[in-house]
Amino acid sequence: MLPEAGVIWLADGLSGRVTAHTGPRFPMIVGSLIGAAGFLSMCLTNATTPYLVFCFMLMAIGFGLAFNVPAMTNACIESAPRERLSIASAVLNAGRQAGSALGVALLGTLVSSSQGFVPGMHVALVIAGAAFLAACALSYFGIHETKESAPATRAS
User: Which pTM value belongs to this model?
Assistant: First the structure.
């Protein structure tokens, strides 16, 4: 898991800079696509897959997730009225925590299924990859930049 964690700091900082210049839509789409590619490519692995190949797949997952989250947070908070920012932040964090717990429980159940570890892991990876692709589609069709919401045109 170290390769995945190793790119998170890079993607997180890069996402903030890209979001400041382009708005949240672009990093959310790109992060979701890279994360989906990482998850779905891991479905092609088996016990003989070289560790270096795993490293690149894990790096794609970590980069995609970390590139997506700051932009997503920005989009959620920016869409809330000023007087409701604390509520929006609380709901966002509660939803993130609940989603993480449910995702780990669901995917962990699939991995430990009676089919065996590798088949269960492949099913879990397909579901995770599909979730990232769904996030990409939602970002593409659901996030619309306007002059009022684009960070580059907003007055300080």
Answer: 0.83
